[in-house]
């Protein structure tokens, strides 16, 4: 579960799922996965978590939009997810379309955005591709997506097609086809599908384990 590294309880802005660390060596995808591997878990049995949501914050000072900027609490709830401090990817696209400034966090290889006193750290197509390449180079087993329904499942918000993040991940890992709307992903012959229905924050959301499919 390589996400939720920063949220409103931290009192400062931070990335939800940074690939690399920036100041705190423990809070990154790279560190978390290497921790398991260095303690004896085989890389070929480890799945990397990919979030299709971000965490938003209220800035104490709207003119300070940097990483680590002081915050006063969670950002406003999205119109659909209705949970303060969390936005689905499709809600983030709406935030971006409203005039938010987009920025790229180069040291951590993930984006963030801000407008007024609201700040959000999230993942997008670019960061998913970078993480997928890193996953393959490190010979991890595959990816787990949290969650199917937080991606732009209609394709109408982000204008990037249906399930833009999951589709990006599928393509990057060499998978052939998907049926994400039914709660699973399909793989090349000989590959198995491992999935389970989970509940998080009182809402039913599907968690998906995605074998890499790369030989």
TrEMBL record:
Biological process (GO), any one: carbohydrate metabolic process
Residues in GH18 domain copies: 1-176
Location of the region described as Disordered in the Swiss-Prot/TrEMBL record: 192-215
GO cellular component: extracellular region
Keywords: Disulfide bond
InterPro entries: Chitinase_II/V-like_cat, Chitinase_insertion_sf, GH, Glyco_hydro18_cat, Glycosyl_Hydrlase_18
PROSITE patterns attached to this UniProt entry: GH18_2
Pfam families linked: Glyco_hydro_18
GO molecular function: chitin binding; chitinase activity
Name recorded for this polypeptide: GH18 domain-containing protein
Organism listed in the record: Anas platyrhynchos platyrhynchos (Northern mallard)
